[in-house]
Amino acid sequence: MSNDKILEVRNLSKVYGKGCSKCFESTGPKHDTNICPHCGSVVAAHDISFDLYRGEILGIMGESGSGKSTSIKNLFFDEMPTSGQATFFDQGKQYDLFKLNAQQKRHLRNHHFGMVYQNPVLGLNFNVSAGGNIAERLLMNNITHYSDIRDRAIELLRRTEVLTERMDELPKNFSGGMQQRVQIAKALATNPPLLFLDEVTTGLDLSVQAAILDLIMEIQHESNTAMIAVTHDLGVIRLLADRTIMMKYGRIVETGLTDQILEDPQDAYTQRLVASAL
Amino acid sequence: MFIKPILEVENFSKTFMLHEQGKELPSSHNVFLKAYAGRLTAIIGPTGAGKSTVLKGIYRTYLPTSGRMMFTMENGQQIDLATADEHQILALRQNEIGFVTQFLHTLPRQPTENVVAMPLIKKGMERRLAIEKARETLAKLNLPERLWGISPATFSGGEKQRVNLARGLLARPNLLLLDEPTASLDPKTTDRVVELIDNLKQSGTAVIAIFHDLNLVERLADKVVELEPPIGTEQFFNDTRKVL
């Protein structure tokens, strides 16, 4: 794991609104707000910097509105940052993420990244079958032979414990947990070295949550996939993440080894959050 | 002959800053200890002396407030665990430093034998072989075979402790931290644990262990470090003891 960096994020900021020169100095945990009092812009994330290593799971933790999802949506090109840099390293190449053109971005999204959204509607095409969803991603990777696609889809659905008898059904017929598993299968179709997980277990039954977490851990062991897991659930962080970033009002308030964040939090906010966990 | 310690803790202190209460809570202070390959260093002392805190500081579950913890890695290089980068700590945890705590956190649904075999699998051992070794160790620790295939989530304290021990001992780290490894075990199983720790020492592992049972200290320890509660602890625990 050492010295094998896959992602380097430096000073990432995202402001919604026109922004002004006082936005950053008047928002954040110190001011108890992420809305700029001078111009009304929302500072969703500011000065986000971290490194991610191959095969590592990094947790991003924080309450609603802390900027955790914003951070990964910028990295997955769902949004464009206001400022900052991010570099992705793969197979001897490096990509300056925020300087790429649309086609290069699409290429990274389709081939090298995977994203699993909290809401399966964002990650799945509900107009085509479960198998079709996976095929879409494979087609983008120039796997065009029908039987190859079908075999790979079956393999992925088996791995994510979706009944392959149902692969030709539309995702809307599936339960929430199963939709989530199809989404994971789709994200994994191209064996991406980097996977973004946005609240993947939120809103699911406890037993289904456990199964999804199990699956994610297994994937990490087998494929050495690096992951960024965004969640507000301390239990998920404890089970999944090696290191954790704690966010509040768009800023990183603390970062450390997960067990250290949970057992010896340094920041006042983290201490309060950990102490109030059930 | 002069033997170099694998770990040298110098002047380790840990004080918790509780923001909500606006208080500082001293836990360990001015701790000096050394661990040597093939030897066991026992930490003893009353409750509240900061024994577990020292182990958690070495493992970096706690961030030390001050002090140095020089660890000699497999490649011969020295690293200060107090200030080492998080990725270095993660790599050391995977390959060189093990910790058997009094608690067991595991993934749901994982059978016990998988939990025990996991460190070996992570190190790259073939799955079947790792499971086989896990079973051997579980058998040595008297954990009934019918429990191997189910998750330890519902186990009793003593059973969980044996799972924890099996996992920690099997990984054969260069430095093993043990926090009261036999606290909830019967005398017969305790004997087995003593035997396994002895074997581990013979294979070259350095062990730092917290014991309450002085009889165990006598049987296993090559060195003893006694800790006292730090000054200022009494007021927080409403200790009525007379302080001279």
Automatic annotation (TrEMBL), chain A:
CDD domains, sorted: ABC_NikE_OppD_transporters
SUPFAM superfamilies: P-loop containing nucleoside triphosphate hydrolases (SSF52540)
Lineage of the species this protein comes from: Bacteria, Pseudomonadati, Pseudomonadota, Gammaproteobacteria, Thiotrichales
Occurrences of domain ABC transporter (ranges): 7-274
Keyword presence, Signal: no
Coiled-coil segments: none
Keywords assigned: ATP-binding, Nucleotide-binding
Identification of the protein by name: ABC transporter ATP-binding component homolog
Stored Gene3D superfamilies: P-loop containing nucleotide triphosphate hydrolases
Single GO biological process annotation from the record: organic phosphonate catabolic process
InterPro entries referenced in this protein's UniProt entry, alphabetically: AAA+_ATPase, ABC_transporter-like_ATP-bd, ABC_transporter-like_CS, P-loop_NTPase, PhnK
Record carries keyword ATP-binding: yes
One MF annotation (Gene Ontology) recorded for this entry: ATP binding
UniProtKB/TrEMBL annotation, chain B:
Keyword Protease appears in the UniProt entry: no
PROSITE patterns: ABC_TRANSPORTER_1, ABC_TRANSPORTER_2
Superkingdom classification of source: Bacteria
GO cellular component, as recorded: plasma membrane
InterPro entries referenced in this protein's UniProt entry, alphabetically: AAA+_ATPase, ABC_transporter-like_ATP-bd, ABC_transporter-like_CS, ABC_transpr_LolD-like, CP_lyase_PhnL, P-loop_NTPase
EC number(s) reported in the record: 2.7.8.37
Keywords (A to Z) from UniProt: ATP-binding, Nucleotide-binding, Transferase
EC category name: transferase
ABC transporter domain: residues covered: 7-243
GO MF: alpha-D-ribose 1-methylphosphonate 5-triphosphate synthase activity; ATP binding; ATP hydrolysis activity; transmembrane transporter activity
Protein name: Alpha-D-ribose 1-methylphosphonate 5-triphosphate synthase subunit PhnL
Species this protein is from: Hydrogenovibrio crunogenus
